[in-house]
């Protein structure tokens, strides 16, 4: 949103409020960049950066403004972006974590396309947080958004509260979908299946639903493998995402499809959508429609600019209860990819919405190299203003890092996702193959945990209510805070017992349940 006046600086400017801001490289007549000098930045501190930005320039209706940071020995090319406009102020928010301390750093804002635009900034802020402060903030959000207070009232047939009734509480399912990709390697592999269902209640098929897998030759459609995977999912009460209807990347388009043009291509795509969604109507909670459409546009180039629009309308008509997702990479992982800045993502969603399509889900793949927690949080904050469900859909950490570092970064990403109230689910991209995984595995081939697997197990335990045993008070009541989900409650009073199942969903008020015994 573009505002007539900038709002006040966050955190009253943070470290910028204590001294005059030094600006360099700014010409009053042509301020193509704005720069701030920052002294004595520390390693490992989490710095949140924000500023209101406005541009001027001949014929410029908008321009991307990128914030970067240059220290003595490293340049952080993107710590935040915004699509700025003339005549009003836009809000840029991001941040950075230094890998080494810096006595002298320059934070600068400029247009990466070298367009002749003048940049104005106002209400700029740089706020440092220790790791402990950042974690405390996350924990506060988890406690307030992922948990809820419950009071159980135990009474006799006359409605009199029973003091001293023994209560046993067990969480039997979780409200927050946390899962992983699976591949056909799970079929017939009992150790893999047991390992998976012990941990996850959400899945996505890595490649088996993709067009090149189900119709490698024209007209020879084969759903045998995904059918078998779906049976495994169903048998174990696991929800599954549908990935994907079409993929815009030419590398992953079936060879026979690549050779089609015009009406033949349109007919083939229509058949694909009809076949897939008639076959799997109401089986998958989501569909990734035009996968990675911010980076690739094979179908738009071949069928015209409204191709995605038609795909979405056809998919919604055939499977109206599934949420349609725009799924892409480098939205939350970095802001240096000009194809997928948060503003580009939002504008593409709004474009489809204007054309009458409800692309109702925000899919952030999450293939991270080095995560930037304040940028992740700022990006999700911005996307959350759309009021749509946000999922991290393909989370992993680069295999250029050693396994211990992968695990450290994975924990950062998962905590950031789970603690954000607008994130509705997290999927890991860790399907296991004999030769490993796409980029990150949780276990070895004998299902012994790797460091990343230890992190997942630790967080699964941390984000679940352990078994609770207690007794009712003088009012016949017992209270607890529990993670959202389903609970089995067993009550014993004298020689009488009662069992009840309760569902705990998000809400600010204490949830009250009455059990008569």
TrEMBL record:
Query: Could you tell me which SUPFAM superfamilies the record lists for this protein?
Result: (Trans)glycosidases, Galactose-binding domain-like
- Which one of the record's GO molecular function terms can you name? endo-1,4-beta-xylanase activity
Q: Tell me the domain of life.
A: Eukaryota
Key words of the record? Carbohydrate metabolism, Hydrolase, Polysaccharide degradation
| Single biological process term from Gene Ontology | polysaccharide catabolic process
Q: Pfam family example for this protein? A: Glyco_hydro_10
Q: Where is the signal peptide?
A: none
InterPro entries in UniProt: Galactose-bd-like_sf (IPR008979), GH (IPR017853), GH10 (IPR044846), GH10_dom (IPR001000)
Q: Say if the entry is tagged with keyword Hydrolase.
A: yes
| Location of the GH10 domain | 163-459
Query: Which SMART domains would you find in this protein's record?
Result: Glyco_10
Give the similarity note.
Answer: Belongs to the glycosyl hydrolase 10 (cellulase F) family.
Q: What is the protein name given in its UniProt record?
A: Endo-1,4-beta-xylanase 5-like isoform X2
């Amino acid at each position: 949103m573009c505002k007539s006046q900038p709002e006040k600086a966050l955190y009253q400017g943070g470290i910028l409020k204590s001294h005059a801001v030094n600006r360099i490289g700014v010409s009053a007549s042509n301020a193509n960049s704005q720069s701030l000098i920052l002294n004595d930045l520390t390693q490992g501190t989490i710095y949140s950066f924000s500023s209101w930005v406005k541009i001027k320039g001949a014929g410029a209706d908008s321009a991307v403004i990128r914030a970067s940071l240059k220290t003595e020995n490293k340049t952080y090319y993107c710590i935040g972006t915004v699509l700025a406009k003339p005549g009003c102020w836009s809000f840029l928010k991001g941040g950075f974590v230094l890998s080494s301390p810096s006595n002298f750093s320059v934070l600068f804002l400029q247009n990466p396309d070298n367009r002749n635009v003048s940049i104005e900034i106002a209400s700029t802020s740089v706020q440092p947080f220790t790791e402990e402060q950042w974690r405390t903030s996350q924990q506060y959000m988890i406690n307030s958004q992922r948990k809820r207070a419950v009071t159980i009232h135990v009474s006799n047939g006359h409605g009199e509260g029973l003091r001293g009734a023994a209560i046993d509480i067990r969480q039997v399912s979780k409200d927050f979908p946390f899962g992983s990709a699976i591949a056909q390697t799970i079929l017939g592999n009992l150790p893999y299946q047991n390992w998976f269902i012990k941990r996850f209640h959400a899945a996505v098929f890595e490649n088996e639903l993709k067009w090149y897998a189900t119709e490698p030759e024209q007209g020879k459609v084969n759903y045998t493998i995904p059918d078998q995977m779906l049976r495994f999912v169903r048998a174990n009460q696991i929800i599954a995402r549908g990935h994907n209807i079409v993929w815009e990347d030419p590398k992953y388009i079936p060879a026979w499809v690549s050779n089609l043009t015009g009406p033949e291509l349109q007919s083939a795509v229509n058949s694909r959508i009809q076949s897939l969604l008639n076959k799997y109507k109401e089986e998958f909670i989501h569909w990734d429609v035009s996968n990675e459409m911010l980076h690739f546009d094979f179908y738009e180039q071949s069928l015209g600019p409204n191709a995605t629009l038609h795909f979405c309308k056809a998919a919604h008509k055939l499977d109206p209860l599934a949420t349609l997702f725009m799924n892409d990479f480098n939205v939350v992982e970095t802001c240096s990819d000009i194809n997928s800045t948060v503003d580009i993502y939002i504008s593409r969603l709004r474009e489809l919405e204007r054309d009458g399509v409800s692309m109702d889900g925000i899919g952030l793949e999450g293939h991270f190299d080095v995560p930037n927690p304040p940028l992740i949080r700022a990006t999700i904050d911005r996307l959350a203003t759309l009021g749509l469900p946000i999922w991290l859909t393909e989370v992993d950490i680069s295999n250029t890092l050693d396994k211990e570092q992968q695990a450290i970064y994975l924990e950062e990403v998962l905590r950031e996702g789970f603690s954000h109230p607008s994130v509705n689910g997290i999927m890991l991209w860790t399907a296991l193959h004999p030769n490993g995984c796409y980029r990150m595995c949780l276990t070895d081939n004998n299902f012994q945990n790797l460091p990343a697997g230890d992190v997942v197990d630790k967080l699964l335990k941390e984000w679940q209510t352990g078994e609770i045993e207690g007794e009712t008070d003088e009012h016949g009541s017992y209270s607890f805070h529990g993670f959202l989900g389903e609970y089995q409650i067993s009550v014993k009073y004298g020689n009488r017992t009662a069992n009840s199942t309760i569902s705990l969903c998000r809400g600010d008020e204490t949830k009250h349940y009455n059990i008569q015994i």
